[in-house]
Amino acid sequence: MLKKTTTTGTAAVAGTGRGGAVISSTTTLLLIATFLSILLLTTYPTPKSTYHSLYTSLSFSDNTTISQNLFTLTRRPHVAGTPANADTATYVLSTLSSYSLNSHITSYQVSLTYPLSRTLTLRRPPPYDTSTTFNLHQEIYADDPYADVAGEVLPSFHAYAKSGTAVGQVVYVNYGRVEDYDTLKAMGVNVSGTVALARYGKIYRGDIIRQAYEAGAVGVVVFSDAKDFGGGGNEGARYFPDDKWMPPSGVQVGSVYGGAGDPTTPGWTSTSDCERLSVDEVEMLGDVPLIPSLPVSAADGDAIIRSIGGQVAKDDWQGGMNAPVYRVGPGPGFLNLSYTGNQVVSTIHNVFAVIEGAEEPDRFVLLGNHRDAWTFGAVDPNSGTAALLEVARRLGKLMKRGWRPRRTIIFCNWDAEEYGLVGSTEWVEENREMLASRVVAYLNVDCAVSAAGFHASATPQLDELLKQAAQQVQDPDNSSQTVYDSWISSDDPKIGRLGGGGSDYAPFLQHVGVPSVDMSYGGEYPVYHSMYDDFIWMKKFGDPMFHRHVAVASIWGLVALGLADEEFLPFNYLSYAQELQESAKEFEDKVSSKVISLVPLYKSIDKLEKAAIKINNHIKEIKERRVWPSFWKRNHLEVRELNDRLMMAERAFTDRDGLLGRSWYKHLIYGPSKNNDYGSKSFPGIDDAIEKAKILNSVESWHSVQHEIWRVARVVTDASLVLGGVLT
Ligand SMILES: *[C@@H]1O[C@H](CO)[C@@H](O)[C@H](O)[C@H]1NC(C)=O
Ligand SMILES: *[C@@H]1O[C@H](CO)[C@@H](O)[C@H](O)[C@H]1NC(C)=O
Ligand SMILES: *[C@@H]1O[C@H](CO)[C@@H](O)[C@H](O)[C@H]1NC(C)=O
Ligand SMILES: *[C@@H]1O[C@H](CO)[C@@H](O)[C@H](O)[C@H]1NC(C)=O
Predict the structure, then answer these.
(1) What is the number of the ligand 4 atom nearest to the C-alpha of 68?
(2) What does pLDDT average to over the chain?
(3) Is the pLDDT of residue 416 over 90?
(4) What is the mean pLDDT of residues 115-133?
(5) Ligand 1 in contact with 190 (CB < 6 A)?
(6) Whose CA is nearest to atom 13 of ligand 1?
(7) Pocket around ligand 4: residues whose beta carbon is below 6 Å from it?
(8) Domain that holds residue 534
(9) Residue nearest to atom 10 of ligand 3 (CA)
(10) Residues 331, 393: one domain?
């Protein structure tokens, strides 16, 4: 088996002249050839850079394997905790094993919810006096090849929604943001006791529900507006399968939980016999909604909008070309929403493959992607799973050619991400101390591809490495340039930051302080979390040739190889200091009229900058000592000590107490904003304190802004001490 794969592997790579031994049929010749090549390999080890260029050249024709893996993974809906998703775990495990990687599954027992019953009725009082009970059903499409398993798609619901009934007049609340409720208040609209109708799009859906609750609503209906998801809602607009847009019956399902990990085991590992909080205790923590909610389609949202009278909503609250005039209400339309969820302890499966490092096996580079999907998951998340398997396949080939990484590489395939980063968080909580002392970086890909256009976010010490990787990969949409070329010429060429809680990097970065990356091709896409996120959509609209998948796999693997193989970790903290400087400046306007000083923060950033310059110079100086014989006499402990400082400096940005009122989030530089879990914020603690102070405008509230500035300044100073490597 091993041998057969080796031969195929060699053949797939353009001729390198090593096939000579295979031509001969005599065992003796083969033995001599093998002996000679072993001798050659041990005398002159192949430089790592040769393997790295080989890694990129291995990409030719890989689109077939990627497409096949995606097709198999998305054959059926596979929600976390279901037998169908246990099957995808088995598939990923056996595929990784077939690439000769050591693979295993780690399972957890976690509390997940599934829909038991839902009803939504709209009454319009006299003179209309009509009543509509919505069927809440997503329709199969013409020639839908998945019609046979459409019945396995879960009824549309919000995971961890409150069970119960909400009855009241409807109020239209736009995107359900804090500022939308401010607008309603200014219009004199009282939301208290009503059922809020919000549209998806600007903030995390869990925050839509929480803000509605805080405004006094008793229930929430969230719809996908054709303006945002249906191609503008223009007359004659086409939608899937004829165009990429969401069909009128399409519903975006998803979680409304605001925390990370199993809500019944906050901060500790979910096993079959562990301590668990009761439903009441979970509700007291404030991360699950306290009023029921349901997601609905564009068509149902439109019907509800038409039942709302009262003042006309502002221009930017209106719908698409063909939509009725949106009014805010309340009523006269009257909604009766009832939802019952079934909360059960289910088994989830994380799949891992490990390539042990030859020189530093106790230093880990992690590549992660989740596998569970709300429906078929062609974009979200299995485009990423197919890319992960592709990286694994290529590294398996490099190993057959004699490569071993310097540090250990671990492939992680998470379960139950959709419910609230559950699989990754439970694993991080179980292995926290080991991860904190050994992980070099965590590289995440959730949706690998939904459209053209490369996007990446990272902690800033990784910026340079990301750019270098993108420079080595051909642009899948224009063969005469690299991904980097198209990236820098795009509208949004910046490297994003990882403040939002949107994917599995959150436990690594925001809880433990591991340098992280997240990347994708494309961004938001119309059929997100609906039953139309299937292989046909991907093939027609997301990535018809699967070349974007190949590009993601190439960049992902090159970043991993850089981190796993370079003698000195390719981290540049100078970019971190510069980035912090820019983020700090953004606060200047916000606090200018107050007696708030940003000086402590600027001083700490200064120290970080100096420490970064110093360690960069130190490493440069050691690298220049490459003259024989001192090169051979390089002190490995000295190298290791410098690398440890680079690795641990990010940990120093975490604080034992974490963000105020959200103590699981330990990182004081990057974390989700309080009012929008998707929002990427720098210094979320300072930001939250400013938002609060703007409302209260008291001496104490502005004092706590200053306190948060001091806290950040202290962790930045800590990071500079770690980089410097000397005790005070
Ligand atoms: C809003 O309505 C609720 C009950 O319907 C009432 O108790 C409350 O006083 C009202 N608020 C305002 C500001 O009118
Ligand atoms: C709302 O719907 C539920 C479930 O269908 C029903 O039991 C209840 O009577 C309804 N309430 C009103 C006020 O119509
Ligand atoms: C492809 O890339 C080349 C080189 O950057 C550029 O000149 C050309 O305009 C690009 N073509 C398209 C269709 O974008
Ligand atoms: C892979 O790419 C080639 C062109 O480079 C294309 O002809 C082929 O159809 C692609 N395969 C798949 C599965 O899309």
Answers:
(1) 13
(2) 91
(3) yes
(4) 94
(5) yes
(6) 190
(7) 63-64, 67, 545-546
(8) 44-110+346-565
(9) 478
(10) no
The continuous run of DSSP H or E covering 517 comes out as strand 516-521
Same domain, residue pair 295 and 386:
no
* Lowest-pLDDT choice from 8-22, 395-409, 650-664, 689-703: 8-22
Q: Which two tokens stand for residue 353?
A: 């493959």
Band the pLDDT of 674: cuts 50, 70, 90: confident
Q: Who's near 303: CB < 8 A, 6+ residues apart?
A: 122, 132, 134
**Helix (H), strand (E) counts: the chain:** 25, 16
- What is the residue-wise DSSP string for 544-593? TTSHHHHHHHHHHHHHHHHHHH-SS----HHHHHHHHHHHHHHHHHHHTT
Whether residue 381 contacts residue 426, with contact meaning beta carbons closer than 8 Å, is answered with no
Model confidence pTM above 0.70:
yes
**267 and 373 share one domain:** no
499 in the same domain as 412: yes
CATH number of the domain bearing residue 272: 3.50.30.30
Could you say which DSSP state residue 233 is in?
G
Ligand (nearest to CA of 171): 1
Q: Is 318 in the pocket of ligand 2 (CB under 6 A)?
A: no
295 within a domain of the structure (yes/no): yes
Is 417 labeled as catalytic in the residue annotation? yes
> Residue 629: what pLDDT?
60
Sign (positive or negative) of CA dihedral 82, 270, 430, 289: positive
Q: Is residue 253 part of a domain?
A: yes
- Assess whether the C-beta atom of 119 lies below 6 angstroms from ligand 2: yes
Tell which of 518, 539, 565 closes a domain.
565
- Of the residues 214, 283, 359, 417, which is catalytic? 417
Domain check: are 608 and 491 in the same one? no
Q: Is 340 in the pocket of ligand 2 (CB under 6 A)?
A: no
- Helix/strand/coil (H, E, C) string of 381-393? CHHHHHHHHHHHH
CA of 478 to the centre of ligand 2 (A): 57
∠ CA 529-530-533, rounded to 5°:
85
Does residue 589 or residue 648 have the better pLDDT? 648
Q: Whose CA is nearest to atom 12 of ligand 4?
A: 545
Q: Give the domain CATH number at 62.
A: 3.40.630.10
Lookup: tokens for 341: 């969820």
Does residue 33 lie in a domain region? no
Q: In this structure, are 250 and 122 located in the same domain?
A: yes
Range of 23-32, 56-65, 113-122, 500-509 with top mean pLDDT: 113-122
Placement of tokens 């997601």 in the chain: 295
- Residues 629 and 557 grouped into a single domain: no
pLDDT, one tens digit per residue, over 567-600 is 999 999 999 999 999 999 988 888 877 789 999 9
Average pLDDT over every residue of 664-679? 83
Show the tokens assigned to 231. 């191609």
Q: How far apart are the first and last CA of the chain?
A: 58
